[in-house]
Amino acid sequence: MKAPAFDYQRPRDLAAAAAALRGASGNAKLLAGGQSLLPMLNLRLARPGILVDISRIEELRGIEDRGDALRIGAAVTHAELEDRPLAGGAMLREVAHGIAYRSVRNRGTIAGSMAHADPAADWPLALAVLGATLIVDGAQGRRTMPAGDFMQGPFTTRLADGDIIIAVDVPKLSRGARFGYYKFCRKTGEFPEASAAAVFDPETKQARLYVGALPGAPQPLDDLAYDLAERGLPALTEAAVDRAVAQIPNLEPIARRMQRAAVTRAVRQAFAA
Questions:
Q1: Could you tell me whether strands 7-9 and 133-137 are parallel, antiparallel, or unpaired per DSSP bridges?
Q2: Which of 55, 79, 232, 263, CA to CA, is 20 to 30 A from 109?
Q3: Residue closest to 109 by CA, chosen among 152, 62, 66
Q4: Which CATH number belongs to the domain containing residue 35 in this structure?
Q5: Helix, strand, or coil here: 270?
Q6: 132 and 210 Cβ atoms separated by less than 8 Å
Q7: Bridge partners, 30 (sequence order)
Q8: pTM for the complete prediction?
Q9: Chain-centre distance of CA 90, in angstroms?
Q10: Which helix H or strand E contains 152, and what residues bound it?
Q11: 76: number of CA atoms within 13 Å, CB side?
Q12: Is-contact 236 265, C-beta < 8 A?
């Protein structure tokens, strides 16, 4: 298949990118890594009139240590997060390393994954469990959106026409923090059939447990997370996991069993650290 005809622009800065989007009247797509968008173009699942390439805008390329959080530019690639040791960002590095193949990680970007909102993707799950915040610029001005409720459904987000994700703020994990991330894939590099992520940080009093690779957005399992933070591994009983996963709607029996196993393994990873 060949992509339909489109115009191409590569703005030099964020202001020019925003102007290009406004001028397209909703008929433009942002291009960063292109690992999802380009196949969609070739399959004619997307038909934008203009591609606005933001991959080389310096404002979107940096990683900044802001003390209690890491600010990751929207166009930072998975490979850059995989290769760069970041204080308080060990989970980011581990998640990035497990995304697809190195050739994909060299091009795919953290904000591109969030904007695409594939339910089986890694970053919507990982950033939700880390309590991250997206910084978005658009017609409504610059604003923030919690990663946990950014994705509204499959391939659907809170972004409006003309919005650009500028960066992602990820709270640092303390030295005493524990995390786990587990996904079931038919083979290495593929999207998972089930996934789960857990973060327990006693210094910041954070306890989060999320399930991903669902029919929709990642779902929190708050009651189980709080119980685990209070009682530790003794709270990880088969009955407790069953109750938690039973709250997730629209799961087939086989998917439910896989999610139960993913939750158990993610939590055990966290407490084994």
A1: unpaired
A2: 263
A3: 62
A4: 3.30.43.10
A5: helix
A6: no
A7: 52
A8: 0.94
A9: 15
A10: strand 151-153
A11: 23
A12: no
Question: Do you know the residue count of the chain?
Answer: 273
Return the structure tokens found at 230. 């209070």
Residues 47 and 71 in one domain: no
* CB atoms closer than 10 angstroms to residue 235: 16
Q: What is the mean pLDDT of each run of 10 residues along the chain (273 residues)?
A: 85 93 87 86 85 93 96 97 96 96 95 95 98 94 96 94 95 96 89 96 95 96 97 97 95 95 98 84
Structure tokens that stand for 195 in this block: 């996934």
Q: How far apart are CA 118 and CA 141, in angstroms?
A: 26
Contact 104, 73 (CB under 8 A): no
At residue 31, what is the residue type?
L
Rounded Cα distance between 104 and 239, Å, is 39
Boundaries of domain holding 37? 7-51
Among 227, 230, 231, smallest CA distance to 243 is for 227
Looking at the structure, do residues 79 and 118 belong to the same domain, yes or no? yes
Q: CB within 8 A of 198, min separation 6: which ones?
A: 129, 178, 179, 180, 181, 208, 209, 210, 225, 228, 263, 266, 267, 269, 270
